[in-house]
């Protein structure tokens, strides 16, 4: 049977994982600046199987508005270019010898607003995940009290601690959302 300390520790670990997943999701949301993580979703046909772009080419930044893609094998350039063009990212890659340049088109005001809505939506989902973890932790503590393995005073203290951890994670999510929105709205 787990103790209150174990429940709190597990809960905090799961909340940290939720924030890490949220940060990862944020990297996929496009801002005006180039970000190599943007191409993480692109897959290329390589000897009959679909491979992530990062496994068949070197993806790096050329400058703040251009991603460079350097295929590891000759002859992969055209396939990579086609995969990027056909992805739903709205990008138009250009080959220069072995190097593929992927310029980031400037975003319209309307597109920026759509992106901030998407960021807020992701933020809400992350907050819901954190609140669900809080609920699960509190239910685990209540079960210990019901099974007479902890006192009601222990329960009140544990719930207060769990709430503090929850508040800290929620404010971290809000801070990340705000930072991403500013990044998107910066022209």
From TrEMBL:
Responsible for the release of ribosomes from messenger RNA at the termination of protein biosynthesis. May increase the efficiency of translation by recycling ribosomes from one round of translation to another. Keywords: Coiled coil, Cytoplasm, Protein biosynthesis. Its main location: cytoplasm. Residues 22-185 form the Ribosome recycling factor domain. The keyword Protein biosynthesis applies. Pfam families: RRF. It is found in: Cytoplasm. Transmembrane segments: none annotated. InterPro entries: Ribosome_recyc_fac (IPR002661), Ribosome_recyc_fac_dom (IPR023584), RRF_sf (IPR036191). GO terms for biological process: cytoplasmic translational termination. Residues 134-168 form a coiled coil. PANTHER family: MITOCHONDRIAL RIBOSOME RECYCLING FACTOR PSEUDO 1, RIBOSOME RECYCLING FACTOR. GO terms for molecular function: ribosomal large subunit binding. GO terms for cellular component: cytosol. Belongs to the RRF family. This is Ribosome-recycling factor. It comes from Ramlibacter pinisoli.
């Amino acid at each position: 049977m787990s103790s209150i300390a174990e429940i709190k520790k597990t809960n905090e670990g799961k909340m940290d994982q939720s924030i890490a997943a949220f940060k990862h999701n944020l990297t996929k949301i496009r801002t005006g600046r180039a970000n190599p993580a943007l191409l993480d979703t692109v897959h290329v046909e390589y000897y009959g199987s679909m491979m992530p772009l990062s496994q068949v080419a070197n993806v790096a930044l050329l400058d703040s508005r251009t991603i460079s893609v350097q295929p590891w094998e000759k002859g992969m350039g055209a396939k990579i270019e086609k995969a990027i063009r056909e992805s739903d990212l709205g990008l138009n890659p250009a080959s220069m010898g072995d190097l593929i340049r992927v310029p980031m088109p400037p975003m319209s005001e309307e597109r920026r607003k759509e992106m901030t809505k998407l960021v807020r939506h992701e933020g809400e989902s992350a907050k819901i995940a954190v609140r669900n973890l809080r609920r699960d932790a509190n239910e685990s503590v209540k079960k210990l009290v019901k099974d007479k393995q902890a006192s009601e005073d222990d329960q009140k203290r544990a719930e207060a601690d769990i709430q503090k951890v929850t508040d800290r994670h929620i404010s971290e999510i809000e801070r990340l959302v705000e930072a991403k929105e500013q990044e998107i709205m910066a022209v």
